[in-house]
Amino acid sequence: MGAPEAAVLIRQHLIDPEVCIRCNTCEDTCPIDAITHDDRNYVVDPDICNGCGACVPPCPTGSIDNWRTVPKQAAYSVVEQFGWDELPAQQEIAGDAAPVVAEPATDDGLQHNAALSASSTRAPWSAAHPYLNLHDNRKPVTATVAGNYRLTDTDADSDIRHIVLDFGTEFFPVLEGQSIGILPPGTDASGKPHFLRMYSVASPRDGERPGYNNLALTVKRVVADHEGKPALGVASNYLCDLQKGDRVQVTGPFGSHYLMPNHPGSNLLMICTGTGAAPMRAMTEYRRRLAAGGKPVDGKLMLFFGARRPGELPYFGPLLKLPASFIDMHLAFSRVDGEPKTYVQDKLREAGPAVAELLKGDTFLYVCGLKGMEAGVMDALRDVCIAAGMDWPALHARMVAEGRFHVETY
Ligand code: A2P
Fold first, then answer.
1. Nearest C-alpha to atom 5 of ligand 1 is from which residue?
2. What lines the ligand 1 site, CB under 6 Å?
3. Which of 148, 332, 358, 385 can pair with 306 through a Cys bridge, CB separation 3.0 to 4.6 Å?
4. What is the Å distance from ligand 1's center to 305 Cα?
5. Ligand 1 center–CA 16 separation, angstroms
6. How far apart are CA 327 and CA 280, in angstroms?
7. Do 219 and 239 touch, CB atoms closer than 8 A?
C-alpha cells in the first residue's frame, strides 16, 4: 500500500533569490512553463514542475539549482516564494515519513525542450574562459563613473547613453558578450533594496580604453512600460543621470556562453536592434583592435542593425567610419519620413545570398535586442537558407549544438 498523501515527501525545486540575477533564462528554458516571476522573484510552481532539470545547465549563476525535501502537502507555494528574500533552511523531516518520491523527467518534457532551444547553451569552442560571479549583491564591487555620453540625437525619441565605469585596482575582468549587474541605490515600494538590473558590456576585454581597467555600457533611459504607459525605469534612469566621479555598485560578471570565438578565421554574423548593439560593439571593436595591431584577422564580420532613424542608432557615427573591407554593414530604419518601414529581417532577406554564403562557413551568429524581432529574424534566416537550397532546420540544430547560435532578447 502507498504512503498516505500527507506523509509523501518531494524534492521541491527552488530558486535562490539572493543569487538569482533575474535574467529570465530559466523561464525561457522551462519546457512546461513551471517557472514564473513577479517584480522581484523568479519562482518554480510545485504543481507544474516535474524536476526535468532542463533549466539547470543554462542558468548563469547556479541560483536555479536548489532543492528542499518537503512533505508534498506542504510544498512552498508560488505566492510564498514571491515573498522571499532568501531561501528557507531545510526542514527537519520526521523519521517515519515516507521516502522521497522522485518526480521523474518525462520524455515528453525533454523532447519539447530540444525543440524550443533556439539558442546555444554552450560557448564557441575557441572562446576565452570567462570569469563568473566574482561579486554578488551581498558583496558588490564599487566602480567609478569615468564618463556618461549621450549617443542619440538631442531631438531623438530615446535617450541612449554610453556610460564608462572604471574599476581602479579591483579585479573585474569581462569578455565581449558578458553582462554585469547594477545595484540601484534605495528601496522599492515594499521597502526592500532594489534588486540588480543586468546590462551587456559594450567594450572589448582589454577595456573601453585599451589597457585601462574600465568598461562601457549602452543604456536606454526607460520612460514607459511595455504597454507604452509612463513609467520610469529605476536602474536606467539612475545610470543615465550619473555624473563623472559618481560611484556605482556592480555585480557579476555574468554569462558563460554568449561569447565570441577566439580563432581569428571565424566569421561573426551579428543582428541587433537599439541597445542590443552593446555586445556587437564589443566584439567588433575587439576584432578591429586585433587587425589594427597587425594580427591576421581573416574572418568576416556582417552586421544587421535596426533603429527608428539614423539619429536613434547608437554608435552610428563611429560605425560609418569602419571600412566595408572590415565589416559588411546593413542598417535598417523603421521611421524615416518618406521611406518604407524597414526591419533587420527585411535587410537579411535583401542580403540573402551573402548571408547564406556566410552561414555555410565557420560562422557564429549573435542576435540581441527586442524580443519581438526574434520570430522575424528566425523566419528570415529560414527563408534565406531555403532560397540557397540549404537545409535550415539541420543547420540551425548544428549551430545551436556547436555553440554558434546565440540569441539574447528582452
Ligand atoms: P518600430 O519603429 O516599429 O518601433 P526601439 O527604438 O523601440 O528600441 O526599437 C529599435 C528598432 O527595432 C526600431 O526600428 C523598431 O521599429 C524595431 N522593431 C520593433 N519591433 C520589431 C520587430 N518585431 N522586428 C524587428 N524590428 C523591430
1. 274
2. 158, 273-274, 306-308, 312, 334-335, 343-345, 370, 372-373, 376
3. 332
4. 10
5. 34
6. 12
7. yes
CATH of domain 5-116: 3.30.70.20
Q: Where are the domains of the chain?
A: 5-116, 141-254, 267-409
Q: What CATH number was assigned to the domain covering residues 267-409? A: 3.40.50.80
> Nearest to residue 383, comparing CAs of 408, 331, 329, 347?
347
Ligand 1, residues 308, 309, 348, 371: which to mutate, most atoms within 8 A of Cβ?
A: 308
Q: Which of 220, 226, 343 to mutate to test the pocket of ligand 1 (most atoms within 8 A of CB)?
A: 343
Return the residue whose CA atom lies nearest to atom 25 of ligand 1. Answer: 373
Averages of pLDDT over runs of 10 residues in the chain (410 residues) are 64 89 87 92 94 84 87 92 90 63 40 51 96 92 98 95 98 97 92 90 96 96 87 94 98 94 97 97 96 90 97 93 96 97 98 98 97 94 97 96 94
Rounded-to-integer distance, Cα 232 and Cα 222, Å = 6
Whole-angstrom distance, CA of residue 158 vs CA of residue 379: 28
Q: What is the CA(273)–ligand 1 centre distance, in A?
A: 7
Which architecture, in CATH terms, is 141-254? Beta Barrel (2.40)
DSSP state at residue 279: H
| Phi and psi torsions of 262, nearest 5° | -90, -20
The pTM assigned to this predicted structure is 0.85
